[in-house]
Amino acid sequence: MNKFLKTLIPFDIAKGLAITGTHFAKVFLTANRRKVPLHVVSEYPEVPAKLQPRFRGRLTMLKDDAGEIKCVCCMACVKICPTQVISIEAGKKEGRKTKVPTRYDFEMERCIFCELCVESCGFDSIILNHQFELAVYNREDMSLSMDGQFQNMFGISPVAKFSVADEEK
Amino acid sequence: MPTPTLTQSLVIALLQAILVVVFIFVVVPLTLYAERKVLGYLQLRLGATRVAGSLTGLTGFINRNMWKLGKVPMLSYWRGIVMLVGDILKMILKEDILPTKADKFVFFIAPAISFCASVIVFAAISFVPGTLFTLPAWVPIIGGLPVSGAIGDVNVGLLWILGVASVGVYGIVLAGWASNSKYPLLGGLRSGAQIVSYEVPLTLSLLAPVVMSGSLQFGEISRGMAVGLPFWGIVPQFLGFFIYLTCGFAETNRLPFDMPEAENELVAGFHTEYSGMKFGFFYLAEYINMVVVAALASAFFLGGPWLMPFGLHGLLNPFFSAHLPALLVPFLCQPHAIFFVVKIIFLLFVYIWVRGTIPRYRYDQVMAIAWKYLIPLTLVNLLLAAAVRYCCAV
């Protein structure tokens, strides 16, 4: 009898309609208007994508407060890198006890963004930043180094605004 | 008022037919667009927000150039409103494929049957009681004549609507047969069985308004359900309304009853082999059927198509006619087609709402609902209607 009544009077359908109706009202009234959207999808190209804190983007070198490069050329990242995309040339600098890199090359083409280099680094001198829009038109733009005015290991990549190939002309 | 001659009345009928076609071709793309957006909102998405800039076409051209300038192409992005045109253009421009082993004539005629059957139904639906508008005197042939709100509000209007609407099944079954392929055949057969089964409770639930108003004429039933009762039409016909709506979903092959188009079992059902504008006609027919079902529901159950809901007209009219500006009086104080259209739009929203909420039933469940539950319920409802008719005799 109970089952018969349940079949006859569709409470569950009413409940479902109430849920979706609330969703509709919420999203309809707040779409394009609120800072914190109620819809779950992102509007990526127009609105910058939200990333989790542990997102692994491009490899970046850090400098300390005095503007000195933190890296001391211990080669831990070079040794642990599974695809061998990092190559470092160590050098000396006046007034600094530790070594300082004269060359720090990073081949992004082969990088698998595993973050092993960052974990192995004992001096917190490299991080993976939050940049994920890394597509380029020329292969050369994938090779990053310490020098380079626009495209270097310190800032974020100037995607689609600068290319090494353009500079050479 | 002069009596129109035969030629004049034919020309007026043609004019009305053109108006109906215009109405259809305005409503259908809007419904398509609304379906995308509303379905998105129901599921906490945003629906269509842009027209994809393909490599060809105007939007693609504009999008690419704006991206090159470093700007977000807002023109084609504005809440996907370009979809209104995009859908129709896509259907017209796509290649029309004819399967080699298909029965060519039947393959060609099936979408036409489906489409015509759904459009012809509009002949008996009256948008306004009496005159829609009077033509100005300078119009040749038909100047100064009134154009009525219905093409032909015939005495057997409901019979006409139900009869012609069920001809649409032929289109679906023939399409399934003529494609000469397994999936369309199965889809067509399922659809045929489903629609024939649901025709029974649909007709029985529409019989209740007929009993209560004592007529088969569309305008007369609407009038009976609107002003012939001491309360709003849905109150005594609550059960009937929901049975009718359920059967309407099944009749128009919408979710949760879209058996003929069950994607995971039957590819695309009866129109698997169709493409281009032939497929477009099936698509159009489905959406026009939705409008027809919504129109009937608003006419027979929601208290007359041309009046405000909840019987507000009777309550508000003394207030309105005294205080409103004269411009608004004919819109808000008299029966008007606007309320009809608003009710249709609301019911179309309910269609999409239900589609976004309830998953599809199994085939045997669909049949069980029709034969084991809906038909007995409609008979109970019919008794109820007869009782109401007996108690408050019009």
CATH class term of the largest domain in chain A: Alpha Beta
Most residues in contact: chain pair: A-B, 21 and 19 residues
- Tell me the β content of chain B: under 5%
Uncertain segments of chain A of ≥5 residues (pLDDT<50)?
none
Radius of gyration of chain A: 26 Å
Quaternary: heterodimer
- The helical percent of chain A reads 10-25%
Q: Biggest sheet of chain B, open or closed, and with what strands and sense?
A: 2 strands, antiparallel
Annotation field: number of helices of chain B: 14
Radius of gyration from the alpha-carbon trace of chain B, in angstroms: 23 Å
CATH topology of the largest domain in chain A: Alpha-Beta Plaits
Q: How many separate domains make up the residues of chain B?
A: 1
| Mass-distribution shape of chain A | elongated
Class from secondary-structure proportions of chain B: mainly alpha
| Helical percentage of chain B | 55-70%
Strand arrangement across the biggest beta sheet of chain A: 2-3-5
